Amino acid sequence: MMKYGFSERVKYMKSSAVRDILKIINQGNIISFAGGLPEESLFPVEAVDKAFHKAVTTNNKALQYGETEGVAELRALLAERMKQKGLNRSAENILVTSGSQQAIDLFSRVMFNKGDIILTENPTYLAAIQVFDSYETNVVAVDSDDDGMILADLEEKIVSLKPKCIYVVPTYSNPTGKVWSLERRQKLLELANKYHVVIFEDDPYGELQFDEKEAPPSIASLDDNDLVLYTSTFSKTVVPAMRIGWIVGPHQIIRIMAQAKQATDLHTNSISQHALVHLLNDFDIDQHIQTIRETYYERMLVMKKLLDSVEIDGLKYIVPKGGMFFWVKLPEAINTTDLLNEAVKEGVAFVPGAPFYVSDPEQNTLRLNFTNSEPTLIEEGMKRFVKVLEATNINV
Amino acid sequence: MMKYGFSERVKYMKSSAVRDILKIINQGNIISFAGGLPEESLFPVEAVDKAFHKAVTTNNKALQYGETEGVAELRALLAERMKQKGLNRSAENILVTSGSQQAIDLFSRVMFNKGDIILTENPTYLAAIQVFDSYETNVVAVDSDDDGMILADLEEKIVSLKPKCIYVVPTYSNPTGKVWSLERRQKLLELANKYHVVIFEDDPYGELQFDEKEAPPSIASLDDNDLVLYTSTFSKTVVPAMRIGWIVGPHQIIRIMAQAKQATDLHTNSISQHALVHLLNDFDIDQHIQTIRETYYERMLVMKKLLDSVEIDGLKYIVPKGGMFFWVKLPEAINTTDLLNEAVKEGVAFVPGAPFYVSDPEQNTLRLNFTNSEPTLIEEGMKRFVKVLEATNINV
Question: What is the mean pLDDT of residues B67-73?
Answer without folding.
Answer: 96
